[in-house]
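Entry 12.
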Amino acid sequence: MNISHWPIDERPREKLLSQGATALSDAELLAIFLGSGSRGQTAVDLGRRLLVQSGGLRALFVRTEPLPALCGLGPAKACRLQAVLEVARRCLGNDLKRKSTLRSPRDTAEFLRTRMSSYPYEVFAAVFLDNRHRVIAFEEMFRGTIDGTAVHPREVVRACLRHNAAAVIFAHNHPSGVAEPSESDRAITCELREALALVGVRVLDHFVIGTDSPVSLAQKGWL
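Predicted 3D structure (tokens):
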């Protein structure tokens, strides 16, 4: 049945107008953006299938590679969806930049978890800070396989100098979802700290991102 034949209070667009966006499910929100379904399925059906095949809204949100033709999603819809996801990611990045000073790891940890927790491969990233710990930039520096990535200290030093950073916070994700720092995580953090100390850049923290709350090496006393 076409959505136009549904009761008015069940149609996603009318529900949003009468009850607000928070009243809609993830699939209904996607349906409004997609605008229409495909042969044999409504826009809501298409939204549900897209969520299932992508692994949920968060997995869809953090996806950076081009969307394949999932569940009848044509090129035009895929391009629109990719664009709006990138807009949302940039809004999150701007929110981080607007925080004048990082006094606690909580806000940074939440941003990093939202951005990195659902990657199917390991990503090593850095938040560059000035001498008052104000955010200069967030950068994903290295990508790897499902079980690891290579981190090159020389490239990290170069990035810090390029951003004129006085301090830096590192983060990497564990695709397994278990945010338990490994011995190699601790070793590369020490190596980076020593290399950056030579150019006057402080390493404030290193977060390991999993499915649940990120783990801070600083809070564990490992920095």
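Annotation: Helices lie at 12-19, 26-34, 43-54, 57-62, 75-98, 105-116, 153-162, 183-197. Residues 3-92 form one domain.
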